[in-house]
Amino acid sequence: MDIKEVVKEKYGQAALRVHSGGSSCCGSAPSSQCCVDPITSNLYGAGDTSVLPQEAVLASLGCGNPTALAKLNPGETVLDLGSGGGIDVLLSAKRVGPTGKAYGLDMTDEMLALARENQKKSGIENVEFLKGEIENIPLPDDSVDVIISNCVINLSADKDRVLREASRVLKPGGRFAVSDVVVHGDVPPEVQRSMELWVGCIAGALKDSEYVEKLACAGFEDIEIEPTRVYNIEDARAFLSGQGFDVNALVPKVADKFMSAFVRAKKPV
What are 135-151's pLDDT values in tens digits? Predict the structure, then answer.
C-alpha cells in the first residue's frame, strides 16, 4: 500500500475503536482506555473538552491545540485539514460564532461519520464536514480566512501540494495556523522509512527549515515556527517501542529532535 492508503486504513480503525467505546492514540499506537501516547496526550484544557461529546475528545489524534493558538475571530471562516473526529472543527465553530463557519476536511469515511455524529450531539450548527484529500481541497479560491490542522500535514506524501492548496483557498491576508510535528536536525533513515511511524505522526515530519522553505515556495510570508513541546528520551522510547527497532540504539539518535510546533504563516494581501 502507498502512504495514503495506510493512513486511511489506520485512521479508519481508530475511528471505529472510538465508536465502539475505546480510545485512540496517534494512528499506530494500540487502543486503550487511557492514552499515554507522548504526542497526543494532554493537549486540551477541561474548559474546551467539557462542552464537547466524549467521542470527539477520544478521537483526537493531534499534537497540539490549534484552535487556541490561532486566535480565531467572530465571523471568520475556518478550514481544518484532516479534521478526524471533529474536535478542532467544533471548537473553532464556537470561537467564530454563529456569523462564522467551520469546515472540516477528511478522506476517511469512518472519521467523517464519527465527526457528523459528534456535531449532532454538540448541537453546533455552523459546521460542515467535507470528504476529500488535503492535497485537493474541495473549496473555491479565496474562500477561507484561516486554515488550521492538527498533526495531519506531516502525514501527506506531497506536502508541497498541500501547502499550495492551502494558499489557493485562503483569502488574501488569510492565516495559516497549524499544529504539526517537525524535526530539528537529522534522524536515522530507518525511522524515516517506517510506514507505521509515518501513520504515528513521526516519520513524515519535515525539518523545521524545510517547512519554512516549502511555505515560502507556496507563496506564504511572515512564517514562524514556535515549538510547543520537545520530545525527550522517554518520549522517544514510547513512540519507538513495538516498531521492530533496536530501541536502545535508536533512542539517543532521535531524542530532542522531534517537537510539536505551532506553524504560522500569512497569504499576502
Answer: 999 999 999 999 999 88
